Amino acid sequence: MLIYKYWNVTYGPFHRSLIRDYDAVPPRVQSWFVCIFSHWHLAVLLLAESISFIDKKQLGIEDVRRKRLNANFCRQMAKSSAIEISDIAAVSAPKHGSNNASQWSLPPGAQEPPFHSVTHEGAILTEPWTILIIRAFTKAAAIHLERAEELWHSRSSDPSGGRGEMQGSLDRCEYCTRALWLLGKKSDMARKAAEILSRAHSEMTGQIAMGSVVVPVESWEGILNWIST
Which domain of life does this protein belong to (predicted)? Predict the structure, then answer.
């Protein structure tokens, strides 16, 4: 946890500055920072899951466990990293017309980065360990969908207060899904994850628009288990 706290006060601000000024960052820097930071936040998600499991099984120190539960620590930890991952997805796989992987292209006038032609569409295609970034985007997308679902179900107690956050969660899920569509150019697993998440996102968006109870196409736990195998 000391490493996690140290990261947040040192590399965290650096990461956010790279996201904020992404278009001005040299392409080769874009490629390595996308890889490094997505790997880090995937590790944080896995750590949050592990701590949550320990707390549920009451395997840790009781006083510390209660403090974490009272502070909703693991949930906040996962939410924060899921947001950071979706920010990476938003800038490294920007939308140019469609979620369909076959329609990705550079925007008019954009300079092609100095990578192999196969990876010209985005820095995430330079990722050498594709499975890690696929897991990062998939886990983050599922977390955002789950959060949107929770906010929808809690609307009776707060009819309008959570709508902005709910839409934000759906948007962040879409960012991650777009990144997976792009990664689908080199990975069948990424394409399959994008298909599952796109279907779940569309189902939820449609049911919210109709004002009906949200019933996900796939359970979020099922998505996470599938991508973790």
Answer: Eukaryota
